[in-house]
Amino acid sequence: MDEVAHSRRPKASTPVDKTCASCGRRIEWRKKWEKNWDEIRYCSDACRRHKVSTPDRDLENKIRELLDARSRDSTICPSDVARAMSERGWRELMEPVRRAARRLVDAGEVEITQKGSVVDPSTAKGPIRIRWSR
């Protein structure tokens, strides 16, 4: 009887999800990370290799600069940031700008919206806008 009661005991809750230090996407807890969850900082090997560099920080600063230049309620498009950083190769900067925006969301500085509603930056697909957190 004791064994049955023991097996029905609720499991300990899983730790809170984290945000990848490189791409800003949510890292969901996995059983294989149980022993070293506190050390996990990246969602993948690609993010671990990429890390956050000076150009990535420059993109974050450009997002802040463009938002500061507009009214508090205005939004910007990631392409605005990419074009401000590079007139010719701006399309190549689109994903790095989105990563920078996701890191700023994690820091609580900005929000990512679609059609005027705040969305989860980890799952947002398609066109997005960036605005100061409200």
Question: How would you characterize the overall build of this protein?
Answer:
- 36% of the residues lie in helices and 11% in strands.
- The protein is globular and about 45 Å long.
- The protein has 134 residues and is of the alpha+beta class.
- The protein has helices spanning 2-7, 45-50, 54-68, 78-85, 94-106, and strands at residues 18-19, 26-27, 110-114, 117-118, 129-132.
- The strands form 2 sheets. Strands 4-3-5 form a 3-stranded antiparallel β-sheet, covered by helices on one side. The chain has a two-stranded antiparallel ribbon with strand order 1-2.
Blueprint of the fold:
Elements: H1 2-7, E1 18-19, E2 26-27, H2 45-50, H3 54-68, H4 78-85, H5 94-106, E3 110-114, E4 117-118, E5 129-132
Antiparallel strand pairs: 1-2, 3-4, 3-5
Helix pairs in contact: 3-4, 3-5, 4-5
Q: Which characteristics define this entry?
A:
134 residues; alpha+beta; two-stranded antiparallel sheet; 5 helices
How widely separated are the two ends? 54 Å
Mean pLDDT: 86
Structural class: alpha+beta
- Report the total helices: 5
Strand order of the largest sheet: 4-3-5
Given as residue ranges, the uncertain stretches (5+ residues, pLDDT < 50) are 4-10
- Summarize the helix and strand pattern as letters: HEEHHHHEEE
Total strands: the figure is 5
Global shape: globular
Strand percentage lies at: 5-15%
Largest sheet: 3 strands, antiparallel
* Rg estimate, integer Å: 19 Å
Helix content: 25-40%
